Hints:
The relative contact order is 0.18. 49% of the residues lie in helices and 21% in strands. A 5-stranded mixed beta sheet has the order 1-3-2-4-5, with helices on both faces. The chain is globular, with a radius of gyration of 17 Å. Helix 4 runs parallel beside helix 6 (139-150). The chain is α/β, with parallel strands linked by helices and 153 residues long. It is built from 6 helices and 5 strands, in the order αβαβααβαββα.
Amino acid sequence: xxxxxxxxxxxxxxxxxxxxxxxxxxxxxxxxxxxxxxxxxxxxxxxxxxxxxxxxxxxxxxxxxxxxxxxxxxxxxxxxxxxxxxxxxxxxxxxxxxxxxxxxxxxxxxxxxxxxxxxxxxxxxxxxxxxxxxxxxxxxxxxxxxxxxxxxx
Length: 153
């Protein structure tokens, strides 16, 4: 009977972990506020959610893995900067995303930039780039590379 309860508990905890969702911001001002309040850098995920195959692969192979969930929850504020072709998007978000894409010279998707917001004298926030990553089929390798950038914070 103890074995059955133990197996049942293990299965339920696995389903609960899968059901947890990460908090992805789309509004940079809200993400920046959270980043400053929690003293965590931001991960800017430049994606083409409805057309980019490599973006989908990064989601499947890294961003939707349990180890990424744990790492992201403890280390970064997540920001999705989407460039959809078919999905309607708010005009303000579209302009924000295009400006950030230009500022960080993003040439392809997926690109993940790690940035540290720094508040200046006039309360204007500047984003200090720490480094960027693209696709990797291994969540472990991707996280190791991301940690190297976060160490610069």
